[in-house]
Specification:
32 strands; alpha+beta; 8-stranded mixed β-sheet; 736 residues; elongated; 12 helices
Length: 736
């Protein structure tokens, strides 16, 4: 099988252009030892058949392609995702995703005769041509072998041009007619010339210091600290007035571009102040602090191989401070989410950084953020679609920004409710809908024994579908459902628990009646059409309100449809009447420990032992396990009510009923007599279970609600209309 390489892709990628899935051949692979992160790095030399370039750096999460020998010289690959970056004077293309189309054996050798390009920038190639190939410089594109971050070139930026190369200062603006320019001589010291600066602090072993000879020093000219041989009668010393000085022009000798840090600064500014030989990190004595505006990097361009970035973004969500601990240590953490014109990203701070930044960061404010560590995001703890997140460090900077022009409040990517059926479980989506119905706030007890507020809403949109959205905590308590508000949720999690539903969790953002075009359009649709539309609910098996359109069944349907026979339990709601209760075993003695509800056994000493906790207690708690027989017009069934549902049904707590059982049997019996032949709405869980090699249907009552006969009648009428619309037309009697 032959493949066609994407010609011209090498130059386009090198220039930072976007190339969709280019097909390239691997010419060579260089491996560099593991750095601080313990991961090897691989630098690729790729070819498009005409040009080849070794500026491609393989992301560490793709190392398995090389380690499994799937990626090898002469194989053909497709680059699915790349990021262009410039490190120092070299350009790097980081390969974030790729696939191997053809192995080296299938390719059979090199395709074409590609010319090798250099990965230096054009300015660097002009100022510093090198006789060595770019792939001879250790590290990716002049990078060291470390696992990430800002790669520094091993070749010193103070390296002088080759002796045969003309100095970049040959075309001197100071050159006078008829006079040989002192800049024609290379800044490198001519042989045999003494320099007053031989003891250069910047001198590297094995390399002539650029400070050994002044770039202004002509061949045969004495040091500017000595009397100038060019001095004529009546002409001042070069230290006072340059022999090349013309009226109105500052002397090039007054501020040498080679002047080392610590020398006295000249009083006049030389036009040659920006020295091409200036060492890395050394400030020019004549330079002033830059007052240019901060260069802002869009969030979508952030990646682990980019350094010296600054983002300007708005805080759209901020968490509280949370404590964490594991077997090795403990600490505290908080996170916040920011957005700019391009994308969103999560920022995390730990321990000392929590104290430093928590009070500074305010929601809905715009900040300039820099010097953080960009790494792959843990999708378990974020609802954002960004593959990366930022971790703050002691050197990080967060500065309030007054210029918030163009920074949006939120970025939404709304998914119609009708498309939620196609989403995978635990997928994170943005949705917007009108709150058609809402239940009251209820309290549930978590497995840890904590009380948590919960509220369920039913959202509908113009797709004609409806879905349940569950709110927790403060959001559940503060939500106001009056007036059928428009609700926008960023980062809701899809659940397949009883059909399809949505959940708002810690990192989700909920906005009521947002000021966005989608909300206005949805409000107009609901006022005109939606309020009278009977939307189809995607949430069939779970509901917390009898008014919700849910999985309504009759008791006969449980058997005919074989609910509960699958791998997962089924949920349904029904309107049924209580006809009998097994009051003899409706209570049991439970462990008094907060989260343990196991049965306890009375000991000879009058204490009570819990097998789960392994402890003896002086007392116990009564808990419900009530069996009730429910019936409707078609059938009946047995169901079990535990603590909360039994208390709701009987209208009395387990402790109070237990006290009546021990002291007043008549009052105990009257409690059950009150509920006989009373009709309620029951929400149930049904599952076929095996016990002692015998299968039996187990029905558990999850919630008990008063029956709204008017609402129930409307529901029955709608069901009749739907069945009537499906029924075939009656045959026409020809004899009539």
């Amino acid at each position: 099988m032959s493949v066609k390489l994407t010609q011209g892709a090498i130059e386009s990628l090198f220039n930072g252009s976007v190339v969709q899935s280019p097909v390239l051949q691997v010419i060579n692979i260089r491996e560099y030892p593991a750095g601080k992160q313990g991961l090897n790095r691989y630098r690729l030399n790729l070819s498009d058949g005409k040009r080849s370039l070794s500026c491609f750096l393989l992301a560490t999460h793709l190392n398995h392609l090389r380690e499994s020998e799937l990626l090898e010289p002469n194989c053909v690959c497709v680059l699915k995702k790349t990021i262009f970056s410039q490190l120092s004077s070299r350009r790097v293309v980081v390969v974030l995703d790729m696939g191997v189309l053809q192995t080296a054996a299938e390719t059979g050798g090199r395709i074409g005769n590609p010319a090798q390009l250099t990965d230096q920038t054009p300015d660097q190639q002009q100022a510093e041509p090198s006789t060595s190939r770019s792939d001879e410089i250790p590290g990716p594109s002049g990078c060291g072998p470390s696992g990430g971050g800002n790669y520094a070139m091993k070749t010193s930026p103070m390296k002088a041009p080759a002796p045969w190369m003309a100095s970049p200062m040959q075309a001197s603006p100071m050159k006078a007619p008829g006079m040989a320019s002192p800049m024609q001589v290379s800044p490198m010291k001519a042989p045999g010339m003494a320099s007053p600066m031989q003891a250069s602090p910047m001198k590297a072993p094995g390399m002539a210091s650029p400070m050994q000879a002044s770039p202004m020093k002509a061949h045969g000219m004495a040091s500017p600290r000595m009397a100038s041989p060019m001095k004529s009668p009546g002409m001042a010393s070069p230290r006072m007035a340059s022999p090349m000085k013309s009226p109105g022009m500052a002397s090039p000798m007054q501020a040498s571009p080679m002047k080392a840090h610590g020398m006295a600064s000249p009083r006049m500014t030389s036009p040659m102040t920006p020295s091409p030989m200036k060492g890395s990190g050394m400030a020019s004595p004549s330079s002033s602090p830059s007052k240019s505006p901060t260069r802002v990097t869009p969030i979508y361009q952030l990646h682990p191989y980019l350094s010296n970035w600054t983002i300007r973004a708005r805080v759209i969500n901020k968490s509280d401070i949370r404590n964490w601990s594991n077997s090795r240590r403990e600490g505290k953490v908080f996170n916040f989410e920011v957005v700019d014109e391009t994308e969103e990203i999560k920022i995390v701070a730990f321990n000392e950084e929590v104290d430093q930044f928590f009070s500074l960061v305010e929601q809905d404010k715009v900040y300039l953020i820099s010097k953080g560590t960009v790494k792959l995001a843990n999708k378990k703890f974020t609802s954002l679609k960004n593959d990366y997140e930022i971790t703050l460090s002691a050197s990080s900077r967060i500065v309030p920004c007054d210029d918030d022009c163009g920074v949006p409040n939120l970025l939404f990517q709304f998914v119609p409710i009708s498309q939620l059926e196609t989403k995978d479980p635990d997928a994170v989506v943005d949705v917007i809908g009108v709150c058609e119905e809402a239940e009251d706030v209820s309290l549930i007890t978590t497995k840890a024994g904590k009380q948590l507020s919960k509220r369920a809403l039913m959202l509908t949109d113009s797709s004609g579908k409806m879905v349940m959205l569950t709110l927790w905590g403060d959001q559940a308590e503060k939500f106001n459902a009056s007036g059928h508000p428009v609700v926008a949720v960023r980062g809701a999690r899809v659940s397949t628990f009883g059909g399809h539903s949505l959940m708002v969790f810690l990192n989700s953002t909920l906005i009521v009646n947002p000021d966005i075009p989608e909300a206005f359009a949805l409000r107009a649709w609901y006022n005109q059409v939606g309020h009278a539309l009977c939307s189809q609910s995607l949430t069939e098996g779970y509901s917390t309100s009898g008014d919700f359109r849910t999985n309504w069944k009759t008791l006969r349907d449980i058997k005919t449809e074989q609910l509960g026979h699958g791998e997962k339990a089924d949920y349904f709601s029904c309107v049924a009447t209580v006809v009998f209760c097994r009051k003899e075993n409706c209570l049991y003695r439970a462990c008094p420990e907060g989260s343990c509800f196991k049965k306890v056994h009375e000991q000879d000493d009058g204490r009570y032992h819990c097998d789960k906790c392994g402890k003896d207690y002086p007392n116990f708690n009564y808990r419900f396990m009530l069996s009730v027989n429910l019936a409707d017009f078609g059938d009946n069934m047995w169901a079990t009510c535990f603590q909360e549902t039994a208390e709701t049904l009987l209208g009395i707590s387990a402790e109070e009923l237990g006290h009546l059982k021990d002291t007043d049997e008549n009052a105990f019996d009257k409690v059950f007599e009150k509920i006989y032949f009373s009709t309620y709405v029951f929400r149930n869980r049904v599952k076929l279970e095996n016990f002692n090699d015998e299968s039996r249907m187990k029905v558990t009552v999850m919630e008990v609600l008063p029956a709204d006969q008017r609402q129930h009648s409307r529901r029955l009428l709608n069901a009749i209309r739907e069945l009537a619309s499906r029924a075939p037309a009656p045959p026409i009697d020809d004899d009539a």
